[in-house]
């Protein structure tokens, strides 16, 4: 069986002081199948952000390997990795991270334009319509509410129709009600577009909505 | 897509965009002005050289010029239209009732001059001159001969009536006669004087006015080759006015260098603004990278931004130039040594477009390259705190900027040596100021413990963020130093000449003294109570070989010569006035080698000894022991260099580039130069009259008058330099604002924290104000002190004395301190506004 994501014995050390190191991830291994939704739960400082950095190819493991769609990220150069990420990943952040001087539409168009997709505007509008923001195309991020901002971020993540979506506490900065609605939307769209989801959260209720749950504690991962 | 994104980003940050563009604009306006002056000067030199020559092509001779010459020129012009005029000049005695004086009599066709004019008071035309035996005279002749308009002046056989006084004459006088006052008469009057006859020394001129399409220099060369007559001196108008063109070119070179300081400072300001902007945009860059934009594309995106900004800066500089030039022309025209253009020259605009865009790009290159290297992993953190630092090991990335500025310096100075010196001085000054500032900060740090919280906090922040704060300090100090330097050097020149003229300098300078006149002239001087000093023999000589080599580079060898090449070529080609001396005079100092061994013994096998002036020897790369061959009136004279000496030219004593030991020129026909000691006004006047009466061939220069003219010219040049220096200062202030913007952006969070900790807004404002005032005041004070230190070697080299701290030289401090306070206030307000606005934004 081919996997969308294969993480094998990943170790990540950071230097601490001059002579010692701290191990943030200690031999993490797991696999994610196509269209599968997987959550990673754990307390703060458990290594969740480090794992996301490594999964997204932003950071490289000290040991072990990460394969996405069969490609070992360690074998890609920085440029290749960036392009690969641009084509195959959709990332949703807890802090939304929209470009503040671009409108909602322009923010969603951006990854499409980076990937050289010609009808970027039409596609971006389509996705904004899917997240219910057809009326907010020309709004700047500062003119949107928190929920709306995250919905734009979701539209941006889905616009290139990636094979895998990494979501880092997508509702962490929203109130319960808005968070609930945003997550409903995210799961619905993932199902609709047959995407794979890796969701990092410390919210058990949210984690339970995924097909599989993993726990990351003190740098070690285990199936729940 | 990148360009569109870049434009959108700039539009979204209007304050940054505007400040950056203004920064670039200020840096470029000076350069636009200098380049326009350059083109304008070239045009003016062409115009003034035409005025100086009275036409485009001048053929002169001491013998009557064959009418065939005109035919030859006509044939070379191949049918092109030309106008033609003739003139004769003769050196002769002019007599009033009791006195007589050597004058230069000039008779010219009524069509002359073709360019420029002779302004006469009361206002008259050539026809009035031709109406009878009339003449126009130079004003000094009236004084020397005790005459007034309406009086008679006897010239040759003719008594002329003085009908006007020449107030302005665009045509210079020729040869040695330049030092005798001129008298204008008509050509028919000249005939009636009976002066033009066989054996009389008459200068004949044929003057041509040509169409603008004619290459006059080429025509002069062709005419010389075709006519092959050694008695004819064929010169284009540019050759006639070579010396004045050279002076303006030098001034322009130095103005150009100062304008580069403004450009450099504006780029430093731009660097800080851009860095602050990038820091602000790091999150956006991280997002772009995260969603797939390659690092090189991100770098390209910010390169586009920089190009867009610099292009906008260039456009604004062009608009500003269009607006400023006519105003500057109107306000400053009478005070500057050259004609200001009323609008920027097209070539200057092209230049600033290229320089503005390239200089900005190369200066910001290290930061642009840096954006490729950061990791976007912070996006997964709860707060985003990536920093953008340019490490010392990335020094190589600054090489393009350094090379670009070096190339610009060479281009502006037209001299590799001056450019190197300029950049080295700038780097040394910056490094020295940096170290000085660091020491001052450290000194303050050790005395902080007992001070108030605001003072402690303000200075600790200054000390612990040395890069930004010391860059502010160095930029401002350099601006203050340059502005102050012009005042100090000008003040020293003025003081040297004025004080010198008022004390030890000679009152009169006498030349064209025949050998047999020396003794009677000395006796006359003694009888009148004046002292004839420093009488020096003088012969004309031409340097023909150096160490036996006659292969000299000619000035026309290349059109791409540096100033050093030009100077060396001039020195080699030039005909010199030589002298012989027993020992060095009081205005000379031996630098290298030994004094003359005594009088020359022609029976010995040793070569005559030569002493060279230091700069002359430098230009020709001459050293002790070199053999120089001169041609003096067709006779070859070889000498050996035994010493290099420094000459205090401002002493107004007879001095020479080349001096032989005593006895070398004994048998050579020569004239003498001499000067008098300090004379009272009455005695000076009486002395002049007696010398004119008894020695009519001797010419006299009034040193006081010459000094006044020199100071007037110096002041005009200094004003041009001052304007440029103030432009540098404005650039420096913009650097301060830029860095302050960067600091405010950087310290936003910290100041918010201070407020949370209970520090009131007014106390935070006090911290910022202490920092700004301290930096600016310290920078101005150090800049002024360093200007004195830099002026020291300059004034030592020029006058062998320390710089004068005249009131004018202190003016920069007087002007800048209030500016420092204003600036401190502005920065404080900027910070306060940012601080007050920020919490609302966060809400």
What does it look like?
- The complex is a heterodimer of chains A (224) and B (843).
- With 224 residues, chain A is α/β, with parallel strands linked by helices.
- Chain A has helices at residues 48-55, 78-88, 104-114, 120-130, 146-159, 176-192, 204-208, and strands spanning 5-16, 20-32, 37-41, 63-68, 71-72, 89-92, 164-168, 196-201, 212-217, 220-223.
- Chain B has 843 residues and is an alpha+beta fold.
- Chain B is 56% helix and 17% strand.
- Chain B contains 22 helices and 20 strands.
- In chain B, the strands form two sheets. A six-stranded mixed β-barrel of chain B has the order 2-3-8-5-7-6. A six-stranded mixed barrel of chain B has the order 12-13-18-15-17-16.
- The two termini of chain B are 33 Å apart.
- Classes of the chains: A alpha/beta (224), B alpha+beta (843).
- At the A-B interface, α1, α2 and α3 of A face α1, α9 and α10 of B.
Largest sheet of chain A: 6 strands, mixed
What radius of gyration of chain A results from the CA coordinates? Answer: 17 Å
Oligomer: heterodimer
Global morphology of chain B: elongated
Number of strands of chain B: 20
Strands ordered across the widest β-sheet of chain B? 2-3-8-5-7-6
First-residue to last-residue Cα separation of chain B: 33 Å
Radius of gyration of chain B, in angstroms, nearest whole number: 33 Å
Strand content of chain A: 25-35%
| Major sheet description of chain B | 6 strands, mixed, barrel
Strand order of the largest sheet of chain A: 6-7-8-3-9-10
Helix content of chain A: 25-40%
SSE class of chain B: alpha+beta
User: Which regions of chain B have little confidence, pLDDT < 50, spanning 5+ residues?
Assistant: 174-178, 553-560, 835-843
CA-CA gap between termini of chain A: 22 Å
| Number of separate helices of chain A | 7
Helix content of chain B: 55-70%
């Amino acid at each position: 069986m081919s996997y969308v994501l294969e993480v094998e014995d990943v170790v990540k050390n950071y230097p601490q002081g001059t002579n010692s190191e701290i191990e943030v991830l200690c031999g993490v291994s797991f696999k994610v199948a196509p269209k599968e939704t997987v959550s990673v739960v754990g307390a703060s400082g458990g290594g969740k952000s480090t794992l996301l950095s490594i999964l997204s190819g932003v950071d490289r493991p000290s040991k072990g390997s990460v394969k996405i769609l069969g490609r070992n990220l360690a074998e890609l150069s920085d440029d290749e990795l960036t392009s690969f990420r641009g084509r195959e990943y959709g990332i949703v952040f807890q802090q939304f991270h929209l470009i503040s001087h671009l409108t909602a539409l322009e923010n969603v168009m951006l990854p499409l334009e980076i990937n050289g997709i010609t009808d970027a505007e039409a596609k971006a509008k389509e996705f904004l319509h899917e997240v219910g923001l057809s009326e907010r195309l020309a709004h700047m991020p500062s003119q949107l509410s928190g929920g709306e901002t995250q919905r734009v971020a979701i539209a941006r993540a889905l616009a290139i129709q990636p094979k895998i979506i990494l979501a880092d506490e997508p509702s962490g900065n929203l109130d319960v009600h808005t968070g609930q609605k945003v997550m409903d939307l995210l799961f619905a769209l993932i199902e609709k577009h047959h995407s794979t989801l890796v969701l990092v959260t410390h919210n058990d209720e949210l984690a339970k909505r995924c097909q599989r749950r993993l726990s990351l504690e003190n740098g070690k991962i285990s199936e729940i | 897509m990148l360009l569109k994104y870049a434009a959108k980003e700039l539009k979204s940050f209007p304050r940054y965009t505007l400040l950056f563009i203004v920064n670039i604009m200020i840096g470029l306006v000076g350069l636009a002005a200098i380049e326009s002056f350059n083109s304008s000067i070239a045009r003016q030199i062409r115009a003034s050289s035409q005025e100086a020559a009275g036409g485009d092509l001048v053929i002169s001779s001491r013998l009557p010029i064959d009418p065939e010459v005109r035919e030859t020129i006509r044939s070379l012009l191949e049918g092109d239209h030309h106008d033609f005029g003739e003139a004769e000049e003769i050196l002769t005695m002019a007599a009033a009732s009791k006195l007589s004086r050597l004058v230069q009599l000039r008779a010219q066709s009524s069509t002359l001059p073709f360019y420029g004019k002779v302004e006469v008071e009361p206002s008259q035309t050539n026809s009035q001159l031709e109406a009878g035996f009339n003449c126009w005279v130079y004003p000094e002749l009236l004084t020397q001969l005790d005459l007034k308009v309406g009086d008679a002046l006897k010239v040759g056989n003719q008594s002329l009536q003085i009908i006007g006084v020449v107030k302005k004459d665009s045509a210079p006088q020729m040869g040695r006669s330049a030092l005798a006052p001129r008298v204008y008469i008509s050509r028919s009057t000249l005939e009636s004087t009976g002066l033009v006859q066989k054996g009389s020394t008459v200068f004949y001129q044929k003057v041509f006015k040509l169409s603008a399409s004619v290459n006059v220099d080429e025509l002069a060369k062709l005419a010389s080759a075709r006519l092959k007559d050694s008695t004819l001196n064929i010169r284009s108008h540019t050759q006639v006015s070579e010396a004045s063109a050279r002076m303006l070119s030098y001034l322009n070179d130095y103005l150009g260098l100062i304008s580069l300081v403004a450009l450099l400072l504006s780029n430093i300001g731009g660097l800080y603004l851009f860095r602050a902007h990038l820091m602000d945009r790091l999150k956006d860059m991280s997002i772009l990278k995260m969603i797939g934009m390659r690092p090189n594309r991100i770098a390209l995106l910010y390169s586009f931004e920089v190009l867009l900004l610099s292009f906008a800066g260039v456009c604004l500089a062009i608009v500003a130039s269009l607006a400023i030039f006519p105003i500057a022309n109107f306000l400053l025209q009478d005070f500057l040594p050259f004609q200001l253009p009323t609008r920027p020259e097209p070539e200057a605009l092209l230049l600033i477009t290229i320089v503005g865009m390239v200089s900005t790009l190369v200066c910001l290159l290290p930061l642009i390259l840096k954006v490729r290297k950061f990791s976007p992993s912070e996006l997964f953190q709860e707060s985003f705190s990536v920093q953008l630092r340019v490490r010392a090991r990335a020094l190589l990335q600054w090489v393009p900027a350094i090379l670009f500025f070096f190339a610009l310096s060479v281009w502006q100075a037209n001299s590799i040596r001056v450019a190197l010196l300029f950049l080295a001085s700038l780097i040394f000054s910056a490094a020295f100021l940096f170290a000085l500032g660091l020491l001052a900060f450290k000194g303050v740090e050790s005395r902080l413990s007992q001070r108030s919280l605001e003072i402690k906090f303000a200075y600790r922040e200054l000390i612990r963020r040395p890069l930004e704060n010391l860059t502010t300090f160095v930029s401002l100090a350099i601006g203050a130093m340059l502005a102050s330097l012009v005042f100090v050097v000008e003040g020293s020149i003025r003081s040297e000449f004025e004080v010198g003229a008022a004390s030890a300098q000679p009152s009169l300078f006498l030349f064209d003294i025949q050998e047999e006149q020396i003794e009677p002239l000395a006796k006359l001087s003694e009888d009148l109570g004046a002292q004839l000093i420093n009488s020096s023999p003088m012969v004309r000589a031409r340097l023909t070989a150096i160490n036996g080599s006659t292969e000299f580079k000619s000035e026309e060898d290349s059109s791409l010569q540096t100033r050093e090449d030009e100077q060396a070529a001039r020195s080699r080609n030039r005909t010199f006035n030589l002298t012989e001396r027993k020992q060095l005079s009081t205005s000379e100092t031996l630098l290298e080698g030994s004094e003359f061994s005594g009088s020359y013994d022609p029976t010995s096998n040793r070569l005559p000894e030569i002493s060279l002036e230091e700069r002359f020897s430098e230009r020709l790369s001459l050293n002790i022991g070199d053999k120089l061959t001169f041609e003096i009136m067709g006779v070859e004279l070889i000498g050996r260099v035994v010493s290099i000496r420094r000459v205090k030219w401002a002493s107004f004593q007879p001095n020479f580039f080349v001096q032989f030991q005593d006895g070398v020129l004994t048998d050579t026909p020569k004239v003498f130069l001499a000067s008098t000691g300090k004379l009272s006004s009455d005695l000076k006047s009486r002395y002049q009259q007696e010398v004119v009466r008894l020695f009519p061939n001797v010419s006299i220069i009034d040193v006081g008058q010459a000094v006044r003219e020199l100071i007037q010219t110096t002041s005009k040049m200094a004003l041009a330099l001052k304007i440029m220096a103030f432009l540098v200062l404005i650039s420096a202030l913009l650097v301060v604002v830029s860095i302050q913007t960067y600091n405010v952006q950087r310290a936003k969070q910290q100041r918010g924290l201070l407020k949370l900790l209970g520090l009131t807004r007014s106390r935070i404002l006090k911290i910022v104000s202490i920092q700004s005032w301290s930096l600016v005041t310290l920078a101005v004070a150090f800049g002024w002190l360093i200007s004195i230190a830099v002026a020291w070697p300059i004034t030592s080299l020029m006058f062998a004395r320390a710089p004068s701290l005249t009131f004018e030289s202190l003016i920069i401090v007087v002007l800048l301190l209030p500016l420092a306070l204003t600036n401190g206030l502005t920065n404080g307000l900027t910070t306060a506004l940012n601080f007050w606005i920020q919490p609302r934004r966060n809400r």
